[in-house]
User: Which sequence fits this backbone?
């Protein structure tokens, strides 16, 4: 990730002001959960919010979160790139994340994943040509009893079959 | 063997997660009882209960609480709801079905240990459960159970907040969890000092798993001795066992802590898919050393499984039948640890992708003589050489799979292919009936 912009803590000023205002308004109640002098603890929630409002964690968005939490933009980047759920580049309109860990594969997840890649014409991590969705393989989602499981835009779908997955994915606009 | 149910009794009940339903079932009476007890008496009950941590390490809960230094304030409670060990899926259902049981456990724990601020660190993938818990917390505040006066107790404030992670297995490790809660990447800390002495924001912190704390109200209500009597030896109570893989009815089963593994699989879970034989069973989440199908007639209790050369871990039981390839399974497990290694310690950061690579090569039929031994050497030089237990967790499956299924690994080399071919995951059956605490999932 090119981080030239990151070195400028003021980079957030180039973001649309109304969106920044929304970010600040939503961050307020979150900050109340942490002691006054421990604002930096809100880094994960702040980045998640930034992602929802701005689509992905571009350098100005990282700078915005860092500015509001009183840390350097590098610290925001460090967190954004450590946790796999954060989008450090633009993705499709929807994010489909299929678990292929052991229990899911014992229930057919690898076959579903292969079929899905072929059908959508993408590789792991790829986005469909029309920008509709990004497909990604993920690690254990904690749904092994109701495997296979996947996340569609953060919401969990369980007890999957290929037919069920094709229906869910087909319905995404 | 007792059939007492502590945690799952009301699972699946419509509307059972609400405060009204929990109260109607006698909920929060343990908190009121605790309010009339001396804090030290609560700790004594938990010590007497032989409750051991349900997150993986199985450490005595009451004893852990006594490690807090006497004279340092504030103290914090952090609830570990990061549930990420492959094969484990129990805490999420406690939060969905019994969020107030967890909150009552949190409240009693804070009362017993003079704690006024608690965080529930929940894994990022559990969006629904995080919302469910936040709703339950809001109910508890509105009813005056939480907030400036804990259940009406003058001068005892308690705030409980949900902190949602963003996808990192390592944050289930207690010190990485604290780093993450402080807004940093999840790098485990060097121990000692342990979190009970230097924890969140440098202050003494108790970290307990969701299931562990959900047991606390029952212990206070019925007494530590009654809880201890449900188990055996130094392990009390019931435990949630999560069974997945090639069984007819995967799911969460609440059984006494010393329940028999074979009975759990062959009877409670309805036996194996297609009536095939169990080939391998991982008894405590993917980090636990594997048992062969012949070794499963054992107690699931912590010390019993330790004696059997494995561990009870998080209670995640993964079952493979005879049609599954052990090299393929281990390769997938190795990939998980390579993906999740945080990168802080060299043996783990460099070693886990190496092991994954060798296993990929073996499974593809490109292995050469000596590869299996090299794999073992690598595992042996990661285990015990890292700051946290992820290094051991990555090494133990490799060591045990190779030791117990060595012939199968060698066959991949001599035959230059996977003997199971495309069917290496065995005869999988998509979407079976799952049972969650006695009800259909």
Assistant:
């Amino acid at each position: 990730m090119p981080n030239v912009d990151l070195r400028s803590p003021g980079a957030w000023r180039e973001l649309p002001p109304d969106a920044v205002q929304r970010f600040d308004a939503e961050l307020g109640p979150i900050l109340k959960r942490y002691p006054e002098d421990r604002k930096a603890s809100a880094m994960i929630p702040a980045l998640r919010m930034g992602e929802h409002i701005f689509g992905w964690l571009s350098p100005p968005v990282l700078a915005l979160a860092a500015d509001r939490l009183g840390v350097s933009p590098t610290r925001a980047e460090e967190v954004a790139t450590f946790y796999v759920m954060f989008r450090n580049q633009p993705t499709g309109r929807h994010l489909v994340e299929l678990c292929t860990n052991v229990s899911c594969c014992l229930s057919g997840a690898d076959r579903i994943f292969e079929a899905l890649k072929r059908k959508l014409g993408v590789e792991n991590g790829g986005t469909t040509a029309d920008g509709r969705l990004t497909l990604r393989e993920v690690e254990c989602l904690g749904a092994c009893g109701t495997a296979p499981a996947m996340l569609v835009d953060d919401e969990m779908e369980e007890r999957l079959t290929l037919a069920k997955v094709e229906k869910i994915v087909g319905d995404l606009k | 063997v007792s059939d007492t149910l502590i945690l799952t009794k009301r699972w699946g009940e419509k509307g059972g997660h609400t405060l009204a339903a929990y109260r109607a079932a006698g909920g929060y009476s343990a908190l009121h009882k605790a309010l009339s007890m001396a804090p030290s008496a609560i700790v004594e009950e938990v010590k007497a209960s032989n409750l051991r941590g349900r997150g993986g390490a199985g450490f005595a809960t009451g004893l852990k609480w006594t490690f807090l230094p006497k004279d340092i304030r504030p103290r914090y409670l952090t609830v570990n709801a990061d549930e990420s060990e492959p094969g484990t899926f129990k805490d999420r259902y406690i939060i969905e079905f019994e969020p107030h049981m967890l909150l009552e456990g949190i409240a009693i724990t804070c009362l017993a240990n003079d704690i006024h601020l608690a965080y529930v660190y929940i894994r990022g993938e559990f969006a629904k459960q995080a919302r469910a818990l936040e709703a339950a917390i809001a109910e508890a505040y509105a009813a005056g159970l939480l907030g400036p006066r804990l259940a009406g107790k003058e001068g005892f404030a308690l705030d409980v907040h949900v902190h949602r992670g963003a996808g990192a297995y390592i944050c289930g490790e207690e010190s990485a969890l604290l780093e993450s809660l402080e807004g940093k990447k999840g790098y485990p800390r060097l121990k000692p000092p342990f979190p009970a002495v230097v924890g969140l924001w440098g202050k003494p912190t108790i970290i307990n798993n969701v299931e562990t704390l959900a047991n606390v109200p029952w212990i206070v209500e019925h007494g530590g001795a009654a809880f201890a009597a449900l188990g055996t030896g130094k392990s009390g109570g019931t435990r949630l066992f999560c069974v997945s893989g090639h069984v007819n009815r995967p799911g969460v089963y609440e059984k006494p802590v010393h329940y028999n593994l074979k009975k759990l699989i062959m009877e409670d879970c309805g036996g194996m898919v297609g009536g095939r034989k169990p080939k391998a069973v991982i008894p405590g989440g993917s980090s636990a050393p594997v048992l062969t199908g012949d070794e499963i007639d054992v107690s699931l209790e912590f010390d019993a499984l330790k004696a059997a050369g494995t561990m009870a871990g998080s209670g995640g039981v993964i079952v493979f039948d005879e049609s599954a390839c052990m090299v393929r399974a281990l390769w997938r497990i190795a990939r998980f640890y390579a993906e999740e290694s945080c990168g802080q310690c060299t043996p783990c950061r460099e070693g886990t992708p190496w092991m994954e690579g060798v296993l990929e090569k073996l499974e593809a039929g490109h292995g050469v003589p000596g590869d299996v031994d090299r794999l073992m050497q690598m595992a042996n030089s990661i285990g015990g050489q890292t700051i946290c237990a992820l290094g051991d967790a990555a090494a133990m499956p490799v060591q045990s799979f190779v030791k117990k299924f060595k012939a199968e690994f060698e066959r991949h080399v001599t035959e230059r292919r996977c003997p199971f071919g495309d069917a290496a995951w065995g005869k999988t059956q998509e979407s079976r009936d799952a049972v969650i605490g006695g009800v259909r999932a």
Observations:
- Chain A touches chain B through 53 residues (CB under 8 Å).
- Chain A is about 45% helix and 10% strand.
